[in-house]
Amino acid sequence: MGKLHDVLTPELQDWLRAQHVFFVATAPLAGDGLVNCSPKGLDSFRVLGPREVAYLDLTGSGVETIAHARENGRIVFLFCAFEGPPKIVRLHGRASVVMPSSAEWERLRPSFPEHAGARAIVRAELTRISDSCGYGVPHFTFAGERDTLPRSCEAKGEPALARYRAEKNARSLDGLPGLPELDDGA
Question: According to CATH, what is the number of the domain 3-181?
Answer without folding.
Answer: 2.30.110.10
